[in-house]
Amino acid sequence: MDTQEGACLPKLSRVAVCGGTHGNELSGVYLIKELMKRRREADDEEQPILVLSNPRAAQQCLRYIEVDLNRCFSHDALNAPLSDSAPYEVIRSREINAVLGPKGSADSVDFICDLHNTTANMGLCFISCSDSDWISLHIFKHLQLCIPDIPMRYLHFDLSHDEAYSLDSVGKHGFAMEVGPQPHGVVRSNVYTTMKTALELVLHWIRLFNCGTVFEGGPVDVFTLVKHVDYPRDCSTHDIVAAIHPLLQDKDFCLLNPGDPVFQTFSGETITYNGSESLYPFFINECAYYEKGIAFSLSRKSRVNVPSLRANRDQSR
Description:
The protein is an alpha/beta fold. The chain is 24% helix and 25% strand. It is built from six helices and 14 strands. The strands form three sheets. The protein has a nine-stranded mixed β-sheet. Strands 9-10-11 form a three-stranded antiparallel β-sheet, with no helix packed on it. Helix 1 links the parallel strand 2 and strand 3.
């Protein structure tokens, strides 16, 4: 598409907000519960579909019960045979897909915002499998203008729609909203407020879009995942033998150059970054990723020219 011509997309008639996909990421858990409470009190049918994604994990304040729910939404995972011993989250992913999907079908919801927290110093991030979803990129631009004092980044995991494994991929458009730093199992008022404000702005943008507002295009910086980096490990026990170096800790999205310190071994030695190009680290020392063998991830920064955008007046598809 020539981004100078502008884009015209269908209205977002069915919108879903999900929280508690990871049950110990409490800003999303409590924000969804608050929104559900407001809906009951106001009986407002114009509110989005609200989903507490993993209620059992939320009740026990665990990331998940058996397997990571936010890895269960690829096309293959959703369509594999289901055994009697299937993990709870696999069954739950089918239930969510039945309500918000089916994924990849004309019946799937138009937009999903899935709420997450991170222990890493990442500010407010949108995580998407597309760097050409003009809806998500325009919402990101809108939030940058409305809350310029909050550090914001758009993260792109380069996956096809079928390969995308996260809950938000069930919708036609959407993203995970990641806000941190916040310890898991804890809710911090400032982080909760940032998430609440950001979600209100997302829903406000959708209302404006559906009413016919034309949004001007422009550049957006996008960070595309390049690779994950594991901790140094003992070759016999597989235990980690180093921690994130103090000079890297909390430096999410600060340029990492070859030769920069990345780990400090438990015996006090410094290990440096041996990559061939400068990249941007994120999810540095994320608590939930120890089990996944990820000390931090690396991304490449690029600039995407986003076209002007308006809703299609003719909703026929």
